Amino acid sequence: MELLIIEQDATQAEIYDLAFGDDFTIFVVDNMRSALEVLEHHQIKIVVSDWQIGDHKASIFCDQMDVNNASATPVVVVVSNDQDDETIRDAFNAGVSHYITKPYNIISFTETITGIKAQLERVSKMEQDTADSREVAKTALSQAAIYGNGMEIIAALNNCTDLASMARVTLSTLQSNGIQCAVQYRDDVATSFDTDLSPCDPTTEKVFDVLHDQGRIYRFGRRLMLNDEHVSLLVKHVTGDDPVLHDAILDMGAKLVPAMNARYIALLQQQALEHTHVQIDDVVEKLTDTIRCMAGEKKRIVDAVTKKIEESFHQLAMTEEQEAFFLKLIEQELTLDSESDGIEDIDILLKALSSRLAERLESTQTKEEVPVNDYLDVELF
After folding, report:
1. Which residues pair with 231 in a beta bridge?
2. Total structural domains in the chain?
3. 339 near 290, Cβ under 8 Å?
4. Count of CB atoms within 10 A of residue 215's CB?
5. 80 SS3 class
6. Does any domain span residue 372?
7. I need a labelling partner for 44 at 20 to 30 A (CA). Which of 82, 259, 297, 344 fits?
């Protein structure tokens, strides 16, 4: 701690140096102008001076007080022969902390100065503890905000019905908190969105192509790639250089991307089911039409057989020949080719539907769930 002494008596200045040299870094001057220069260039905590030296009073040190930072203002201790009550009152009104009249007890004076030092050190420690506590609280709030954003994104993704809305929810929420990202979704083809929801430029697309299979977490420079089977999230820029904040983003992202991947798989399955529903409707409609046609054809055959039988009754007297004719007629009419193009189309459509469903279910089948601990101890490639 630095101590400034304004003393014109060399012997008294030496006494001060002997008394406080072990506890302070001491600056000794003999006039007020030099004292102000020392105050300007050093972090002086205590000033010891006579009330008046030359044309200046010790109140000029109190004029240096910073109302926004009281701890930066030195404690002024006056040691003077002037014992007038009015002078002492003026000194205290000016901001002097201690007014000691001569002659004084050297031990008591020394204890006063060292006591001031101890108080200043306690105040300094309290201020540092307060600053540390504020920093910890700020970090905790930032981390909570990041994790809260992750939960908000996951909740909002459940209401998305297409890739564009999924990308908008993810990227806009992250961007509003100073995290600029790009995202890629992969199925038969890859679809990428930049921070502003526009298609990614060729350079960013190349980054996705090269790094999407390089592990769940890949750090390169100040960027970060988070990968899962069908989804990759590229963290392009984070506002601020707080390493704790970056670690929180990494931890949140390691849990967010698997949730995005699961939602994307669910969306693919939903789209497959919707497409299947449309095809099933087509099958049902075509089958209904075919059955209607077959029913009409059968009715026509029955009507034709009945008519011919009736005609045979008028022409023949049910001899053996007529009976043979009757039986042959029924056999011919009922064994007519009943195949139709409609039945063939239904068969082809059903086979294609079955094949497409099998491929989709196989490609979108969720893999075995990875234990939570795998996300707690992530490997940085």
Report:
1. 185
2. 3
3. no
4. 14
5. strand
6. no
7. 82
Alpha-carbon 190 to chain mean position: 24
The first and second tokens of residue 213, run together, are 């299979």
Q: Could you tell me the two tokens for 15?
A: 């006494």
Question: Do 55 and 36 belong together in one domain?
Answer: yes
Structural domain of 75: 2-129
Q: Rounded to the nearest 10 degrees, what angle do helices 106-157 and 163-175 cross at? A: 170
Are 246 and 175 found together in one domain?
A: yes
Residue 359 lies in a domain: yes
How far is it, in rounded angstroms, from Cα 245 to Cα 224?
A: 14
Q: Which residue has the higher pLDDT, 325 or 13?
A: 13
Domain-terminating residue out of 263, 298, 332:
263
CA atoms of 2 and 39, how far apart (whole Å): 10
* DSSP SS3 for 101: strand
CA pair distance 239, 55, nearest whole angstrom: 55
| pTM as predicted | 0.51
CATH code of 124's domain: 3.40.50.2300
* 52 beta partners: 57
C-alpha radius of gyration, the chain, whole number? 47
- Give start and end residues of each alpha helix (H) in the chain: 10-20, 32-41, 59-62, 85-94, 106-157, 163-175, 202-211, 243-315, 320-334, 341-363, 373-376
Express each pLDDT in 276-327 by its tens digit: 767 777 776 777 777 778 777 777 776 776 667 666 655 655 566 666 666 6
Work out the average pLDDT over 83-92.
92
**Could you tell me which residues come within 8 angstroms of residue 336 by beta carbon, excluding any fewer than 6 positions away?**
301
Residue type, 295: A
Model pLDDT, residue 174: 83
Sorted by sequence, the CB contacts under 8 Å of residue 6 that are 6+ apart come out as 29, 30, 31, 32, 35, 47, 48, 49, 50, 53, 58
**What is the tens place of the pLDDT at every residue in 332-372?**
665 554 445 556 566 677 667 767 766 765 665 544 434 43
Please give the distance of CA 154 from its chain centroid, rounded to a whole number. 11
